[in-house]
Amino acid sequence: MGSIGYFIDSLYAYQYLQNAMIAAVLVGIVCGVIGCFIILRGMALMGDAISHAVLPGVAVAYMLGFSFFIGAVFTGVLTALGIGYISQNSRIKDDSAIGIMFTAAFALGVILITLRRGTGVDLWHILFGNVLAVSQADLWMTFWIGILVLISVFLFYKQLLLSTFDPVMAVAVGLPTRLIHYSLMLLLSLVTVASLKTVGIVLVVAMLVTPGSTAYLLTNRLPVMLFLAAVFGVFSSITGVYFSYIYDFATGASIVVVASILFALSFIYSHKQSFLTRFFRTGKVQEKAKLIN
Amino acid sequence: MDPVVKVSDLSVSYNGKNVFEDISLSVYPRQLVGIIGPNGAGKSTLIKAIMGLTYVNEGQIEVMKKPVEKVRKHISYVPQRNTIDLDFPVLVEDVVSMGRYPHLSWWGLLTAKDRQIVKKSLKQVGMYEYRRRQIGQLSGGQQQRVFLARALAQEAELFFLDEPFAGIDIASENMIMDILRNLRDQGKTLFVVHHDLSKAGSYFDSLILLNNKLIAYGKKEDVFQVNCLKEAYDGQVTNISEKNNFVVVNG
Prior knowledge:
The complex is a heterodimer. By secondary structure, chain A is mainly alpha-helical. Chain A has a single domain (2-292), classed as ABC transporter involved in vitamin B12 uptake, BtuC (Orthogonal Bundle). Chain A is built from 13 helices and no strands. The mean pLDDT of chain B is 88. In chain B, 42% of the residues are buried. In chain B, the strands form three sheets. A six-stranded mixed β-sheet of chain B has the order 5-6-7-3-8-9, with helices on both faces. A three-stranded antiparallel β-sheet of chain B has the order 2-1-4, covered by helices on one side. Chain B is an alpha/beta fold. Chain B starts with a strand and ends with a strand. Chains A and B meet through helix 8, helix 9 and helix 12 of A and strand 5 of B.
């Protein structure tokens, strides 16, 4: 237990560790919440795609010196539009369109970044995060993106729920389902930007999909699922940063491993649960059968 | 009396293949309209076209004398059950509450009156006791009643139901049919996609008989004739009794 004390002392002592912790907690909440909708819409691959597609935007932003926030949103949304366009205007299926577009964008991003080698833009840090370099400005950006996402989900909860659960009825009653889809892609790009330093582009999808799936196995209500996903996201972040600090692991990977372990536990628990209910039910049926005979 | 739905020269194609061509019909209110025909005849596509959910190649559709976009609130839709993700984390009462969404503003929350309507709709289909269940935990018939309750909660004028009786128990079927008749008697107009020929004659007031074109449309007595049905079902129809009971014979 000494290491927990040591970790807490370090947390008081070092600003960079505090920033890392706050950023990771914010990312845990935001990814968990938006991830629930990604899961329920069957868009896990799309989440992976948009997060990767952010790379060329980030690279260009670094090169030209504007906020990578704008670059990321631009290429993220552009890729989402491209995927939609290809799958609607050709025989190519959705998942192939996603595969084509995001790898194209990602490869372009890698080329752009390697072009600028030696200028302080580290590809490794963009891909896998560098949580110990979270600046005050990064923190504020993550904070405001988080607020935007949470407010959007809160305000448009009805529209998100209906268009996710029954897209046909959503169109039938006049909801702008396309606008909702692309707004969600926009939020996804923003969330990726917010997670850039913490988990990096490559592992963002885990923070989107894993805590939400963990929650999905444990509840039958969307509001509870959203809440639990945020809780699991935060728990993974805190625990992940802790292990990363104590044992000197890569932080993003450490957070994702914790999230995955939580998922495994919830999977086993929900399996056991359904196994037990089935066991008791069949048990009861057998008892009844005995009584009748 | 004005028609509640007026379709003129409607053609729809999908991936370059015609689903149907040149359909024109006017449907007057206070009716139960059955849409029948073999698999792939374009039954679901016709209701989706009327609701403005599919791309229409040619033709005009007027609903309550307006383009459908203007009257969406007054149209309720009961989907085919197998198109819904039944593992979705929603409870029965959440699903029925969705029927109230068209009446709420973009940011608005359910009011006490909305909740009252949801409760009433649930009671009408006999599902109030199940309101806290997740929808996947219900039987097929119960799920279908929940989706009907959602349509009731919307308080629409026009109802479109896509195969509501597919794979459900007879008690639920009878209950749903009673509710649909009741709605008709209140002056509503209901379109029901249906493939079971044996009950079509007793369930509906009018029939739309489709097989990649409009074969017949009118009062059920006029449409439910062996020659029309034979044309729709490619001759595979026989009359099993004196009282116009038709069945489709395969092969």
